[in-house]
Every structure is written in structure tokens, then in C-alpha cells.
Amino acid sequence: MMLDIVGFSLMMGRNEEESASRLIRFHDGAAALIADRGGRVIDTAGDSVFALFDSISRAVDCAAEIQTRLASDPRPDRMVVRIGIHFGEVILEGARAFGEGVNIAARLEQIAPPGGIAVSDAVYRESSDRLPFEDNGQRPLKNIKQRIRVYTVPGTEFGFPEQSVPRPFRPTGLSGLAESVAVAVEERLRARGIEPRSPEHPPTPPPRRPRRLVESRFFWLLLAIGSLLVAGHGTGWTSNGLYPLIGLVLIGAGVGRLAASLTGLRGLRTLCVAVGLALGALFLEGTVSRAIAWALAAALVGPGIAGLRKSQDPRFKIQDPNS
User: Fold this and answer.
1) Are residues 254 and 144 both part of a single domain?
2) Are 16 and 153 within one domain?
């Protein structure tokens, strides 16, 4: 079990002496609760606590009790922690612990909701009836090879008011930044009535409305440049067949965007580009060049047809079309 105080650096910046005193009291209180549940504290580096338990249920009950006691603090600047729990192999060497199980618990703590708990699938299977867990799907964890199915309990379940739970921005390198953004986007999507898919099936954004697309300068720019490149070949401005080929691809991209917005079939964008590529190949003089262009066009047909099927997937729904 990994615990970490939310926004502790800000607390130290406001009042270092008082924050240090509160940290010591927190460590002592957490250690006492952990010992009561049959666990033992391995490390208390900085504002975190790392503990080991012989029982999954005792670890989950201990985490719930810690959060409940912290939530009962009436002060507006109450201490808020994240807790991550994982069941796995741990290598003990003296007073230190190593192993992937330790790393996974640490990563679960980092993505746990403030004032809440995050557990792995192994922990959930043994304690699903103890807390109202929410399935967060398969999640990539930093420096962990396989994806881990994560279950969380929000801080409100332990008594934290929604408005009192801080959500600090804590990027830890590019991976941590991407993970923070992904979690924030999922929360905003659910708040708007949109259910995000799991990482294996990321949601595809809806096509732009036809009116907004027609009013877009980029749409008309695609058509204008494409038409100029095609017309330039017919007027003798250039004899290079590559220019009309590029022009027809640009026209296909513009027409495809419009067709997708009218029908809702996103695969039409790819199919229209494939048609433009196939027609543009006729302007090429070399047989090999035409064959390459037609091969590329044929390669786009498959993804385009697949896009037509995916557009019917009901797992991604927007309840408010104006949002």
C-alpha cells in the first residue's frame, strides 16, 4: 500500500514549520492504523508512506479507515492523500522492499483520485464487496510493461466534500504529463455525458457539422489549391503529372470531409482521398509511378471501409449535440 499527501509542496510553501509538524502526526497516525490492521510500515520517505500487509482485505480496510479519518477533519485545509494498493511479489532486503509489485502500487497511488483509493484487478477480485469500486478499464502505467486494470473509489465515498478535494497538476515527465491530461479529459467527458472508451478503443471525435465546415477557410483552401494544380496541367503551365495528382488528392480530402460531415461516416474521408489518388495516377507518365499510386490508393480502401463500420459503434455517444 502506497500513500502520498496531495499538494504537500504547496503546504510547505505556505507554512513550513506547521506542515512539518502535521506530517509527523500523519506518519504516526498512519503507522498506528497500519499496525492495528496487521501491516507494517517499510518506508516513510518525504510525504509518502509505504506499507506491506499479509491480507488484501486488511490493506483495503486500513486504506478506507485512513481516508475516513482524514475526511472527518473539520478544518478547511484538511490533509488529503492518495492511496494505491496492489497484490504481488515483493523482495525484502533488510528494511527495504523491491519488485514490480512495489512499482505498480506506486503508480496506482499516482493516478488515485485525491482523497480516494486506486487498486489493481488482483486486489479488486478479493475485495469487490468492501467498497464501491469504479472500473477505470485497462490503464498504462509508467515504466510498467503490461496494462493494469484499475479500480478506484473517489474521495466523496469517505466523506470528502466534492469542492474540498484538490486536483493539483503534477506532471512527472512526458509520460506523467500525458497521463495527467488523459485522466483530466476522461473526467470532463464523463461530466458532459460522454463515456470514453478503454485505451484499446479510443473514442473518435465526431465529424464537424456541414455548415461549420463550409464556413471554414481551410476547406475552401484545399479545394482552391487542388483545382489550381489540376487546371495548371491542362493549360500547359506544367507538364509534370505529380502536380495534378496532388491537386486531386487535396480535392478528395476536402470533398471527403464534407461527405463525412453530411453522413456521419468518417471512412468517406479516406475513400475520397483514395479516389483522388487513383484518378491522379492517370496523369503520371511512368508505368511504375502509376502502379505505385494505385497501390497506395488500394491500401486506403481497407481503412476507409473499416471507418464506415466503426462509425456505427454505439459505445461512443454524445447526449448533447450542442456541446
Assistant:
1) no
2) yes
Do 157 and 273 share a domain, yes or no? no
User: Rounded to an integer, what distance in angstroms lies between the CA atom of residue 132 and that of residue 142?
Assistant: 26
Are 154 and 268 in a shared domain? no
Helix (H, G, I), strand (E, B) or coil at 7: coil
CB 262 within 8 A of CB 256: no
Mean pLDDT value of segment 5-27: 85
Rounded Cα gap, residues 310 and 315, in angstroms: 10
- The domain in which residue 271 lies consists of 210-310
Question: What is the domain count for the chain?
Answer: 2
| CATH number, domain containing residue 69 | 3.30.70.1230
pLDDT tens digits, one per residue of 89-107: 888 877 677 788 888 999 9
What values do phi and psi take at 82, rounded to 5?
Answer: -105, 145
As a whole number of angstroms, the distance between CA 258 and CA 186 comes to 28
**DSSP bridge pairs for 83:** 3, 117
Of 158, 146, 135, nearest to 107 by C-alpha is 146
| Residue among 139, 146, 209 at smallest CA distance from 178 | 139
